[in-house]
Design a protein that fits this description.
Elements lengths: L10 E4 L3 H12 L5 E4 L8 H4 L31 H14 L6 E2 L4 E7 L4 E6 L4 E4 L1 E4 L21 E4 L13 E5 L3 H11 L4 E5 L6 E2 L8 H9 L1 H23 L3 H18 L3 H7 L11 E2 L3 H4 L5 E4 L3 E5 L2 E4 L4 E3 L2 E4 L14 E2 L6 H4 L18 E3 L12 H21 L4 E4 L1 H15 L27 H8 L7 E4 L1
Parallel strand pairs: 1-2, 1-7, 2-3, 4-18, 7-19, 8-17, 9-10, 9-17, 10-13, 11-12
Antiparallel strand pairs: 4-5, 5-6, 14-15, 15-16, 20-21
Helix pairs in contact: 1-11, 5-6, 11-13
The protein binds NADP nicotinamide-adenine-dinucleotide phosphate (NAP).
């Protein structure tokens, strides 16, 4: 592995987003320097590098949506904008001198395990090969834009782009614009562009539950206080975390009485933001609170009160060269179409061909749904660690809580393999099966299975994306590397 210092214990990290950078920092802290980070893009940051659309921000407060071991007191506001999160990731990359470990613009396209050597051979898009004893897959879940399959889309002659591939060279000012989709990305984009464009048509297939955001700018005095007393920053983080845990069951349990608490709060917010009852009716979701991701915004619903913004609820029939036709026969001419249609694949997908012990392919192993032990290890794929893998997504709190537990687990395993000169560790099939049986048993009690459609679910309706429970519980399970759960081969 040429980019890392010469070593007989090479580690490959694939992806330089939060998970990859966090893993690299913890490896350094553990005194392990023999890693290379492969990144297919030209810069670190993952989702925060790619999502630069107007209004892009995290919907988890920054004191919680940052690494606990790399907290900063300087966040400008409660919910930092995307660019600031990207600066944070660049900052910690430089602070820990991680760039010398990185191979940018290097996409891994194939991985193959050599059982005799206890190592993985990774192949890049340029057909180079690298050998690593351990691979930490940090490729992220919501990366590649999902482009809708709408009749005629190819024939559209205006400007068309996805939120995660925003065309900053195209000036929306004074244009007639359509936004397709009303999920987490759309609620951020819509209010931002509404004031800029001549006309905005928002195409809603399914209404979303939206809660108030209560964002605020942090004063210089407050930031100085946090810098002087880091315990205050830790307390801010911790209070936000425990509040989301406390409220979690309202969001993740399939319990109509609990869901009503959230629904009432959201409907009160809607009533406050939208005066027209007919419009309110169209914006009211028909599925149980929490079944899709809860959105937060103080401006999204209010944007529909603007005279230049229209909510279109008739299904799209066809995109023509100059506009969009809906099933009721209406045609709206537009200069630009913004696809806020989410992402392909997800946490439960195989990013490229991965061949483990005895030639087994991850694609085949996961053909009936992605399963892993604690979301990280798959039997038959030794020394392969997945961060943000199957059933590790939260519906109610910061994903980084889960990621940090996975990093701790992975670093502990790497130390064990390296220090004891092991060839490999491979999770025991029966341990993995037992873990997933219990997990799927609990899934039945979760709201995501209550009848709505979302990226959480696979095509057959099963859920291999989210963790069915509290974050604290996952962390307790996932952090330790319990060697008895693995076949250990010296
Ligand atoms: P999303 O939640 O999957 O929403 C996609 C939207 O596009 C939905 O409203 C969907 O309608 C609509 N859609 C898809 N195909 C369509 C079609 N053919 N015709 C009409 N409408 C169509 O995607 P997202 O908003 O990009 O968010 C994805 C995830 O990214 C979120 O759940 C979240 O985890 C993450 N995210 C996070 C933040 C943050 O602040 N932390 C911000 C943005 C995104 P249906 O609902 O009917 O399917």
């Amino acid at each position: 592995m040429s980019a890392a210092s010469p070593t007989d214990f090479p580690i490959a990290i694939i992806g330089a987003g939060f998970a990859g950078i966090g893993t690299a920092i913890q490896l350094k802290k553990a005194g392990i320097d023999s890693f290379t980070i492969f990144e297919r893009a030209g810069e670190v940051g993952g989702t925060w590098r790619d999502n630069t659309y107007p209004g892009a921000a995290c919907d988890v407060p920054s004191h919680a949506y940052s690494l606990s071991f790399e907290q900063i007191p300087t966040w400008s506001r409660r919910f930092a904008p995307s660019g600031e999160i990207q600066d944070y990731l660049r900052g910690i990359t430089d602070k820990w001198k991680l760039r010398k470990h990185m191979r940018m613009k290097t996409e891994i396209v194939d991985a193959r395990f050599d059982e005799a050597a206890g190592s993985w051979t990774l192949t890049t898009g340029e057909d180079e090969t690298f050998t690593a004893r351990v691979v930490v897959s940090c490729v992220g879940g919501l990366v590649d834009p999902a482009l809708p399959d709408i009749k005629g889309m190819q024939s559209y002659s205006g400007e068309l782009f996805h939120t995660a591939r925003w065309n900053h060279d195209y000036d929306l000012a004074g244009r007639r614009v359509a936004v397709i989709g009303t999920g987490a990305s759309a609620v951020q984009v819509v209010p931002e562009v509404a004031g800029e464009v001549e006309r905005l048509d928002v195409y809603q297939r399914t209404a979303s539950w939206v809660m108030p955001k209560r964002d605020k700018v942090y004063s210089e005095g407050y930031k100085r206080l946090l810098a002087r007393f880091p315990a205050l920053l830790r307390a801010s983080r911790s209070s936000k975390y425990w509040l989301t845990e406390l409220l979690g069951p309202i969001i993740f349990l399939d319990n109509k009485r609990l869901a009503k608490i959230g629904e009432r709060g959201s409907l009160a917010h809607l009533k406050h933001q939208v005066k027209d009852p007919e419009l309110r009716e169209k914006l009211t979701p028909s599925f149980q609170y929490g079944c899709k991701r809860i959105l937060i915004s103080d401006e999204y619903w209010a944007a529909f009160e603007r005279p230049n913004v229209d909510l279109v609820t008739d299904p799209i029939e066809e995109i023509k060269s100059n506009g969009i036709e809906t099933r009721d026969g209406s045609f709206r001419e537009v200069d630009a179409i913004i696809l806020a249609t989410g992402f392909a694949l997800g946490l439960a997908s195989v990013p490229f061909p991965i061949t483990g012990k005895g030639g087994r392919r991850l694609e085949d192993t996961w053909k009936d749904g992605a399963v892993a032990y604690k979301g990280m290890n798959v039997a038959g794929f030794p020394n392969w660690f997945i961060l943000m893998g199957p059933n590790t997504g939260p519906g109610h709190t910061s994903v980084l809580v889960y990621t940090e537990a996975q990093i701790a687990h992975t670093v502990a395993a790497i130390k064990k393999i390296e220090n004891e000169g092991l060839r490999y560790v491979d999770v025991r099939q029966e341990v993995q099966d037992r873990y997933n049986e219990r997990l799927q048993g609990r899934m039945k009690h979760m709201v995501w299975s209550s009848g709505c459609n979302s990226w959480y679910l696979s095509a057959d309706g099963s859920n291999h994306s989210l963790y069915p429970g509290f974050a604290a519980e996952y962390v307790l399970r996932a952090r330790p590397f319990r060697v008895r759960d693995y076949e250990v081969v010296a």
